[in-house]
Design a protein that fits this description.
The complex is a heterodimer. By secondary structure, chain A is mainly α. Chain A has helices at about 1-25, 30-40, 60-65, 80, 100-110, 140-145, 145-150, 160-165, 235-240, 275-280, 285-295, 305-310, 315, 355-365, 385-390, and strands spanning about 155, 205, 225, 255-260. Chain A contains 15 helices and four strands. Chain B contains seven helices and nine strands. The longest helix of chain B has 26 residues, at about 1-25. Chain B is an alpha+beta fold. In chain B, helix 4 (about 125-135) crosses helix 5. The chains are: A mainly alpha, B alpha+beta. At the A-B interface, helix 8, helix 9, helix 13 and helix 15 of A face helix 3, helix 6, helix 7, strand 4 and strand 5 of B.
Chain lengths: ~400, ~250
């Protein structure tokens, strides 16, 4: 009786095992297909891994909220980040933890060193609150390690036409009005300045003297190549301050800061006439200035050259009313500005430098144009140059 | 008899419309002179001119009644004549209309410079003096000092706390709105600005016939230019062969 009781379950187990084996081996790929289907179904459930050490303004959830929902203007530390003579109410600090916690509570309390802390904190530790410098003031941030590695997610919309009309009149009579001084490390006796409203924002940039007198493999660049461009809120907030100023107000960040398309960051210019190595070799360290230098078609043109200094900005920058800081092509100076009105560098009789170099280049493609160009001087002359010289 | 009456009515309608048109025209600003200069250089015929689609160019010289160059003045390249585009000249804003509530000191101070808004650099240079003599500026300065606790900042941000917003930029805003409408009506292609010698060279638009105008007089009661211009065949080297002298001769 006992033997019979044991045999029946054993037989049942054996039969079940046989059925299972037969299905697995005999029925071919069907179970595999099912498994694969299950895996395929599971795949969409996997979320892309988020790198919480990097903050992006372009994230859909971040874009939904207004800038002011995180950024406080002015920050509590605005009076401390600049010296007393130049300080003004400004956004100079990171948002408070509260701005992030409502959505990122989980990430804030994950592990001993939560990854999300590294967005602001240089040391992730409950005992150390050290932080990276905030992106504003921009010049100080640009000099920091983080600033050097980080590219902006925004470009600035600055309508030149409105500013030109509303504040930059040029009719200061002699002896009256504003007198602009050259922002230089070496001050010269100022000449009586012509009415030049562009100087309200743009002054000649003189790079600091290089630390060592190492010989440069390239001929020395003339001084005063570039003009500065405002890089901070100090040029804006004195008119656009939220407490009674002009629109866009300082608490409407998106009035000027425009997100770059496709969640991108601002690409570093590759360099046309000069590249980053050239800029470094020549001692240009300010990242804003380097960016301007790399954008140029003529790296050698110096705004501060004696005769150029005498020419009005609008003579060469012919399209000031339609300048668009979001479109770099509108910032281009036409080649005709180099001689169309003045015959300075363009002309057949007597032969001016553009005509001379274009002729030489056409006769000998290995000839390098050097009057205005460094790298581009090796290239074929563009159509604009051929047209200007009548070739 | 009936035909005669119809003719009479038609003549009356024509006369009244002419009178109305001339009345509307009379409300407009005076017209300034335009003088195409003789082509100073030989224009080389360009064999490919018709085939190419390059942009044309125009050079303009602008002078005032005393033959002095007018620097940094805005002009528009238009598809239609400013005076035949149906602009509402009567609705052009006037500066004086935006001075309601201004003290006599402020009115006197504003009259010193020809500025459309309070943001002129010329004004800004005089702020330290203005806070002592003009009550509105004194109020703005005190307000700023109370808020920012910095004399320098209170002075620099004087316009932010300026009490009469109408005086600050309202005239400029209304003028801009008028100009935006006028630009649209007259078919503005591009706007440009003269340099310190009253010159403007502008390129980058389809060749053809255009009008150049300032649309809005530079001074109260001043003239409006309405100059028919043409670009030469598309060859940028001919740019300096096409010049127009725009002058306010006030004859």
């Amino acid at each position: 009786m006992k033997r019979t009781t044991l045999t029946l379950p054993l037989l049942l187990v054996a039969a079940l095992a046989a059925v299972v084996c037969a299905r697995v081996s005999g029925a071919g790929g069907e179970p595999q297909r099912r498994r694969a289907t299950t895996q395929r179904r599971a795949a969409p459930a996997q979320r892309p891994r988020v790198d919480y050490t990097r903050f992006s303004h372009a994230t859909a959830a971040h874009r939904k909220d207004s800038c002011a929902s995180c950024h406080k203007n002015p920050s509590d530390n605005w009076a401390q980040v600049r010296d007393a003579s130049s300080s003004f109410p400004d956004i100079t600090d990171y948002p408070e933890h509260d701005s992030c916690l409502s959505c990122h509570r989980q990430q804030f309390f994950r592990g001993a060193r939560p990854a999300i802390c590294a967005v602001c904190h240089s040391v992730v530790s409950p005992r150390n609150g050290a932080r990276f410098p905030f992106a504003n003031p921009a010049d100080a941030f640009a000099r920091s390690e983080k600033g050097k590695a980080e590219a902006s997610e925004f470009s600035i919309n600055f309508p030149h036409d409105i500013h030109q009309d509303v504040m930059a009149r040029a009719d200061a009579p002699d002896g009256a009005g504003v007198r602009f001084v050259r922002a230089a490390f070496k001050q010269e006796t100022p000449k009586p300045s012509k009415p030049n409203s562009c100087s309200v924002c743009h002054v000649t940039y003189f790079k600091p003297a290089p630390p060592s007198a190492a010989p440069s493999p390239t001929p020395a660049l003339p001084a005063g190549l570039l003009k500065t461009t405002p890089t901070g809120h100090d040029s804006c907030f004195n008119c656009h301050w939220q407490d009674g100023g002009e629109k866009p107000l300082s608490n409407d960040c998106a009035g000027c800061h425009k997100p770059l398309p496709n969640n991108s960051t601002r690409p570093e210019p590759k360099g046309k006439d000069a590249d980053a190595q050239f800029a470094a070799r020549e001692g240009f360290t300010d990242p804003f200035v380097v960016r301007k230098l790399l954008r140029r078609d003529s790296v050698i043109f110096a705004h501060d050259e004696e005769r150029h200094r005498e020419i009005d900005c609008a003579t060469c920058h012919t399209r000031i009313p339609s300048l668009n800081t979001l479109d770099e092509t509108t910032l281009k100076v036409p080649i005709l500005s180099c001689g169309a009105g003045t015959s300075c560098h363009v002309g057949a009789k007597p032969k001016k430098i553009l005509n001379e170099e274009v002729d030489k280049k056409l006769a000998d493609p290995s000839f390098q144009c050097t009057k205005c160009h460094f790298n581009l001087g090796r290239e074929k002359p563009p159509k604009s140059h051929l047209d200007a010289t009548g070739k | 008899m009936r035909a005669g009456r119809r003719t009479l009515l038609l003549w009356a309608a024509l006369l009244s419309s002419t009178l109305l048109a001339s009345a509307a025209r009379a409300q407009g600003p005076p017209v300034a002179a335009c003088q195409p200069t003789p082509t100073p250089v030989v224009v080389k015929p360009d064999a490919n001119a018709a085939a190419t689609n390059d942009a044309g160019g125009i050079r303009v010289f602008l002078y005032d009644a005393e033959k002095k160059p007018l620097a940094r003045k805005r002009f528009y390249l238009l598809r239609r004549s400013a005076f035949s585009a149906g602009l509402d000249w009567a609705s052009m804003p006037k500066r004086a209309d935006f001075l309601q509530g201004a003290s006599p000191q402020l009115r006197e101070w504003l009259a010193r410079h020809d500025c459309d808004s309070l943001y002129c650099p010329e004004f800004e240079a005089e702020f330290p003096e203005a806070v002592k003599t003009v009550p509105e500026f004194k109020r703005a300065y005190d307000d700023g000092l109370r808020k920012y606790r910095s004399e320098k900042l209170a002075l620099k941000w004087l316009t932010v706390n300026f009490p009469l917003k109408n005086v600050r930029t309202e005239y400029y805003k209304r003028k801009k709105a008028w100009l935006d409408r006028a630009e649209q009506q007259a078919g503005a292609v591009v706007s440009f600005m003269t340099d310190d010698k009253g010159r403007a060279i502008f390129t980058g638009f389809q060749r053809g016939d255009y009008y150049i105008s300032n649309l809005f007089p530079f001074d109260e009661g001043g003239p409006v230019w309405d100059c028919k211009v043409m670009t030469l065949p598309p060859n940028p080297r001919q740019l300096w062969a096409v010049s127009y002298v725009l002058s306010n001769s006030r004859q």
